[in-house]
Known about the structure:
It contains five helices and three strands; from the N terminus they run ααβααββα. The protein is mostly helical. A hairpin with a 2-residue loop joins strand 2 (77-80) and strand 3 (83-86). Helix 2 packs across helix 4 (61-73). Residues 89-93 have low confidence and may be disordered.
Amino acid sequence: MQYLTEYDLNAIDNNTFRVPRFLFNGSYQKISADSKLLFALMMERQSTALEELSNESGYSMTLIKKCLNELAKAGLIQVHDSLILITQMRRIL
Length: 93
């Protein structure tokens, strides 16, 4: 049996992101899992271009746009041209 070393755990920790718990409560429960994961990915930057999101997430542009619409309707983000701004950062911090 092979065990993870401290080096392995550090590598895993450096390649992960956190999904905020508030997305699983209240009115945010109905947001799709894809949208929640995309939101968590966007939190790392606070503003992101659409093409970067597609490349980093592996999601198609169609799915990205669907998720962004869902997040915007929930009041979590604002979309301006091809730039996305997270509007609910104060809830996370």
